[in-house]
Write a structure and sequence with these properties.
The complex is a heterodimer of chains A (313) and B (306).
Chain A lengths: L1 H18 L14 H31 L12 H14 L7 H22 L7 H25 L6 H8 L7 H10 L1 H9 L1 H7 L3 H6 L4 H23 L5 H13 L3 H25 L8 H22 L1
Chain B lengths: L1 H28 L5 E4 L5 E4 L6 E3 L2 H9 L6 E3 L24 H5 L5 E5 L2 H12 L4 E4 L4 H15 L2 H16 L8 E8 L2 E4 L4 H8 L3 E2 L8 E3 L2 H7 L3 E6 L19 H4 L3 E5 H4 L6 H14 L9
Parallel strand pairs in B: 3-4, 3-5, 5-6, 7-9, 7-11, 11-12
Antiparallel strand pairs in B: 1-2, 7-8, 8-10
Classes of the chains: A mainly alpha (313), B alpha/beta (306).
Chain lengths: 313, 306
């Protein structure tokens, strides 16, 4: 029954995303309108895939570092992506895809650096080292980025920050094709790690005694979740709160077993982002709100209700 | 909206105060030739004499000073002040947004001109504390150039230069060119798409050139919109302001989601030079003529369809 509602909510959000927008499209023309075909439909589907990626990445990272505050962007990826984007603008890298590609490269660079730091001295992705390394790498990238923005004379650099705040305005069938190619492997890797993640939540020692290959699982989960986040940031910038809040919503709905939690987080993340983007495009039309603001405005009250319910027990 | 009302109110008070300054305040202060000015932060500033050593902390202020004939009184500028070319001879004192008080004081100015923002208010207070008079101005619209031109004319003893700029702007604003039925969208950034609204001087330049900004109804200077909104407003032209030379369309024009916009598909771009269109300038008349020329000469734009 819970799954029925999760899927129904997602379908309702997708329908709203396709049916509603700042331009008036009569319902009878919905399927022929180029606005729907070329703009709304790819944008709603991109919202589903990006929100889903952030949801599932957040859920697995929270279990990996055993910290309910973990967010996919906590591990330095937003800093790396931002640095890549700012470099692309400052160095006038041409071409319509320069900024997303540079952001992706930057995010991958940060990912590799944090991963390497997480292995230093046999630390084996110790959660504390991973979190500290992520925050440090993020802060360092952020500092370099700010230095470039304040020293370079290009006025368009100020807009690099806007790009970073995130949004789905870059949605097209091409973007969708790229992200659809990137998702299956890491999502499958995470789903395949569901059982060992259940064990890992108990602690590394117990997990080892119960037969999990802790070392391999941690590496696989870290790399898969971070790769999903890097893909998301390249196509949609840094969209906050989805990866932090959705896993907790998922736990409240279907419990902590990862074989249920991970798919539920994907569905709920997609629903939240499609819904938030629809609101962002319509409530202040013809203007548009940054979608990260709406995810926070919608997600945080939901989160507060949940917290109340937990503490009521 | 509130900001504009505030500005009009200020302008009114400024006019009233200029009257007071001319007829009443100067004799009361007891100093012959003393100037009493009110700036856009609402502060009353007293100068013993017209300023001879001026530091300008905004490119638009520097350009305006040259336009009123006070160029040789500038002893400091920002690194962004590139126009007119003579401005490059003046030593730079920083980037203007985060002024280095130390570098400014080292130029021994008798007046510092700041563009009003949250950063500059603190710097203005610091400079006042060191006994250096400051004027905080905010000119975002073409009418502001007229007002600021007259204010700076009085502050630097170039009253007639300031008055000439003021009168030129007034007459430009009073006589828009005949309509050409061209509907423009200024796109200043592509992701997220940011357009120029009715609160910007670029909107005024379009109107004066006889064209319409399709986002005139948005009252702020700029706003984030959906590509879908641009498709629905269906502009004839996409105007982009660019510092670098060249007439080619921006790189984002090749992104698939932007092909939904008719003007993008048809390659109807107006690439406008940043030195003329990047800031509200006393050369607004030149900008209007340039925009009008582009609109009437390019009746058959080259098609960029794939």
């Amino acid at each position: 029954m819970k799954w029925f509602w999760l899927v129904a909510a997602l379908l309702a959000a997708l329908l709203a995303g396709i049916g509603l927008g700042p331009a008036a499209v009569p319902i009878s023309e919905l399927w022929q309108s180029p606005i729907v075909r070329d703009l709304r439909l790819p944008r709603a589907l991109l919202g589903l895939l990006v929100g889903g990626s952030l949801g599932i990445a957040g859920a697995s990272l929270q279990s990996l570092v055993r910290n309910p505050l973990a967010d996919p962007f906590l591990l330095g990826l937003s800093g790396g992506a931002g640095l890549g984007a700012v470099l692309a603008i400052a160095l006038h890298w041409g071409g319509p895809w320069a900024i997303p590609l540079a952001a992706f490269a930057g995010a991958l660079g940060a990912l590799g650096l944090v991963f390497r730091l997480g292995l230093v001295g046999g630390a084996e992705l110790d959660p504390r080292i991973l979190l500290l390394g992520g925050v440090a790498v993020g802060a360092f990238c952020g500092a370099v980025m700010t230095a470039i923005v304040s020293l370079a004379e290009a006025s368009e650099l100020r807009n690099a920050y806007l790009w970073l705040w995130g949004g789905l305005s870059g949605a097209s069938w091409d973007t969708l094709r790229v992200i659809a190619l990137c998702l299956p492997v890491p999502v499958t890797a995470l789903l395949a790690s569901a059982r060992p993640l259940d064990l890992l939540v108990l602690g590394e020692e117990p997990a080892r005694h119960l037969g999990a290959d802790v070392r391999a699982v941690k590496r696989r989960v870290y790399l898969a979740a971070s790769f999903l986040t890097a893909v998301s940031v390249a196509v949609a910038g840094v969209i906050g709160f989805v990866g932090l809040i959705v896993p907790h919503l998922g736990r409240a709905l279907v419990g902590g077993r990862h074989l249920r939690l991970l798919p539920a987080s994907f569905l709920a993340g997609g629903t939240l982002l499609v819904l938030a983007d629809t609101l962002a495009r319509t409530v202040v039309a013809p203007r548009e709100l940054p979608v990260g603001i709406v995810t926070a405005l919608v997600g945080v009250p939901l989160f507060a209700v949940l917290l109340r319910r937990w503490t009521a027990y | 909206m509130r900001q504009r009302a505030h500005r009009t109110h200020l302008a009114g008070r400024l006019v009233a105060l200029l009257g007071v300054a001319c007829h009443g305040a100067a004799p009361r202060s007891g100093t012959v030739g003393a100037l009493v000015l009110r700036d856009d932060a609402g502060r009353v500033v007293r100068l013993a004499a017209p300023a001879r050593r001026v530091v300008s902390l905004a490119p638009s202020i520097t350009e305006l000073l040259f336009a009123i004939g006070a160029g040789d009184q500038i002893v400091g500028r920002t690194i962004y002040c590139q126009y007119p070319p003579a401005a490059l001879q003046v030593p730079p004192v920083g980037d203007g947004l985060n002024p280095s008080v130390e570098a400014i004081v080292a130029r021994h100015p008798d007046l510092v001109l700041l563009y009003r923002s949250s950063h500059t208010d603190a710097a203005a207070r610091q400079l006042e504390g060191l006994g250096i008079p400051t004027l905080v101005v905010r000119h975002d619209r073409l009418a502001d150039i007229a007002r600021t031109g007259r204010l700076l004319g009085r502050a630097t003893g170039r009253d007639s230069g300031g008055e000439a700029v003021g009168r030129a702007m007034d007459s430009l604003l009073a006589r828009p060119l005949s309509p050409v039925h061209a509907r423009i969208a200024y796109v200043v950034w592509d992701s997220p798409p940011i357009v120029i609204g009715g609160g910007s001087f670029l909107d005024e330049l379009a109107r004066l050139a006889g064209a319409d900004n399709v986002f005139h109804d948005i009252t702020t200077p700029s706003a984030t919109v959906s590509i879908e909104t641009i498709v629905a407003r269906d502009p004839d032209w996409i105007a982009v302001v660019r510092d670098s030379a060249g007439n080619e369309p921006p790189a984002w024009a090749r992104r698939p989601e932007w092909r939904a916009v008719r003007a993008v598909r048809e390659g109807r771009f107006l690439v406008l030079p940043g030195d003329l269109f990047g800031q509200p300038s006393p050369r607004a008349g030149v900008a209007v003529t340039a925009l009008r020329d582009r609109l009437s000469n390019t009746t058959h734009p080259t098609s960029q369809s794939p």
